[in-house]
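Lab notebook: predicted structure, single chain.

Context: the supervisor wants predicted structures on file for every construct in the current expression panel, including those that have not yet been purified. This is the next one on the list. No modifications to the sequence; it matches the entry in the shared construct table.
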Amino acid sequence: MKHLLGLMAMFAFVVSAADVTGTWKGTAETPNGTIERTFVLKAEGDKLTGETTSQMMGKSTITDGKIDGDNLSFSITVKFQDNEMKLDYKGKVSGNEIKFHVEGANGISLDYVAKKVS
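Prediction complete. Output recorded below exactly as produced.
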């Protein structure tokens, strides 16, 4: 009986995590116009891995990725004008959409809306 309860609890945990595995395309509005970023995400339990790509800053590997229900977080390091900068992402999943808030050094702050494409 204890074994069955343990399996049921594990199943409930897996069901409660958002399904974010796949490719997402996001846009953010800046004073200089709209920027785009592609997110290729892979969820395994509460761990999030993958990479992001943008035309302006290239490809970055996701580090410290976590999923907690519909919330996710991760960091990437980007190179901009020969300087490396860490960006911290926090997101909330709602169906086929993720709303990300991004923070970086020197008060950089952006909001992306990403839609699942595959």
